[in-house]
């Protein structure tokens, strides 16, 4: 393909934007609580609105690609992202932030649905695995840099302590989405032919799958994983501030950055371990160690908590791919429809952080975050009852979290 390097670079740029913007929510939470004088329940509606959109749009997004094509789907996503970011920047207020994050979430979900098949087509089947890993690394780099950029900006002279100074980010995001939309209009994007496992499937296929107990259990596995990931990413900074007196724009932002950075390293380490051990064993080991890290983070000293929260990210890293692959391995047909069902489980990132905020308002954030033990124990149980992967089967790599490719 003549324009392959340009198109692949464009797709990687989109992955960077998705990760950078999504992972700003975590370090932003304590600042928004302070600026808007929010209860923890009200703050929980910020990630709730964003990830609710993810859960709602996954299946309709696949239908839009099939009916209207790649370019229009990308343009629709960028338009939604632009509207959401501009609403936050122009109308600073709690309601506009929640509404704006919901609209941005719709756009981000559409982007994640469309750019995997676009990458496969642009890069070619023979290079797809390589560029999927590259996208994973770009996503991880952006998730690591996002909290650090937030920290650097919020500590600039004249900015530190200034209410709503973080709104500047959403002006930049609005401009970035305009630029991406213009590139979408100008670039010679290839026509995408969806494979059978990328198609949304018929209504009968969804009915057939949802009747199966194992399908519902794997769906809950994705809910549990994303709920855990987003709860830790969004609440750790506030926890460190509330219980250990750490600055949200200093140690809190660094902890969130390390969480995402170690998650990327964990993905690479997990890939190596999966060559040596069965995927169920890797899932059991990593989920057990994630539970240990969570316990140390919640009940350890300030120094231990500051290390244990990011370390949990390392052990969460392989869970999405392993659970997704175990799920797809459990059915012999309708893989596209099943993928849509599993991707809808991203709404766990909406529900669990909100429940934590609700509990925290009554009994404290330590009790609220203790709720995360439940989804982690559920993931550990998946490693016990799931059917092993077919030997040499490739793990699903369509996402690295909202997070990931």
UniProtKB/TrEMBL annotation:
The transmembrane segments are 7-33, 45-65, 72-91, 97-116, 128-152, 164-185, 215-233, 253-274, 281-300, 306-328, 340-360, 366-386
Where's it mainly located? membrane
Membrane topology, as annotated: Multi-pass membrane protein
What top-level branch of life does the organism fall under? Bacteria
Domain Major facilitator superfamily (MFS) profile, residue spans = 7-395
The compartments listed are: Cell inner membrane
Please indicate if the UniProt record lists Membrane as a keyword. yes
Q: Name one Pfam family in it.
A: MFS_1
Q: Which UniProt keywords apply?
A: Cell membrane, Membrane, Transmembrane, Transmembrane helix
Name of the molecule in the record: MFS transporter
Organism the protein comes from: Lysobacter gummosus
Q: What is the lineage of its organism?
A: Bacteria, Pseudomonadati, Pseudomonadota, Gammaproteobacteria, Lysobacterales
């Amino acid at each position: 393909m003549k324009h392959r390097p340009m198109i692949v670079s464009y797709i990687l740029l989109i992955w960077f934007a998705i990760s950078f913007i999504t992972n700003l929510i975590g370090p932003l939470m304590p600042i928004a609580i302070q600026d808007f004088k929010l209860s923890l329940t009200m703050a929980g509606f910020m990630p709730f609105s964003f990830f609710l959109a993810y859960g709602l749009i996954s299946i309709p997004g696949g239908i839009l690609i099939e009916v209207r094509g790649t370019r229009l789907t990308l343009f629709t996503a960028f338009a939604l992202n632009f509207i959401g970011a501009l609403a936050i920047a122009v109308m600073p207020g709690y309601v506009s932030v929640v509404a704006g994050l919901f609209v941005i979430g719709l756009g981000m979900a559409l982007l994640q649905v469309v750019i995997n098949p676009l990458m496969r087509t642009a890069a070619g089947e023979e290079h797809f695995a390589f560029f999927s890993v590259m996208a994973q690394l770009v996503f991880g780099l952006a998730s690591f840099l996002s909290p650090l950029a937030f920290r650097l900006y919020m500590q600039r002279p004249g900015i530190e302590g200034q209410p709503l100074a973080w709104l500047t980010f959403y002006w930049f995001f609005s401009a970035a989405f305009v630029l991406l939309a213009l590139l979408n209009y100008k670039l010679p994007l290839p026509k995408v032919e969806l494979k059978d496992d990328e198609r949304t499937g018929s209504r009968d296929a969804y009915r057939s799958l949802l009747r199966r107990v194992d399908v519902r259990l794997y769906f809950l596995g994705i809910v549990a994983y994303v709920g855990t990931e987003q709860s830790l990413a969004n609440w750790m900074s506030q926890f460190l501030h509330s219980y250990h007196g750490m600055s949200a724009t200093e140690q809190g932002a660094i902890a969130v950055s390390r969480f995402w950075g170690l998650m990327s390293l964990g993905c690479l380490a997990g890939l190596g371990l999966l060559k040596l051990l069965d995927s169920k064993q890797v899932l059991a080991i990593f989920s057990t160690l994630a539970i240990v890290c969570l316990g140390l983070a919640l009940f350890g000293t300030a120094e231990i908590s500051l290390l244990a929260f990011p370390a949990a990210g390392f052990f969460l890293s392989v869970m999405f791919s392993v659970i997704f692959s175990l799920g797809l391995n459990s059915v012999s047909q309708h893989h596209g429809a099943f993928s849509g069902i599993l991707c809808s489980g991203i709404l766990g990132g909406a529900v669990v952080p909100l429940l934590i905020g609700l509990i925290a308002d009554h009994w404290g954030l330590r009790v609220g975050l203790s709720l995360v033990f439940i989804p982690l124990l559920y993931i550990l149980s998946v490693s016990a009852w799931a059917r092993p992967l077919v030997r040499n089967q490739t793990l699903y790599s369509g996402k690295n979290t909202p997070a990931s490719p």
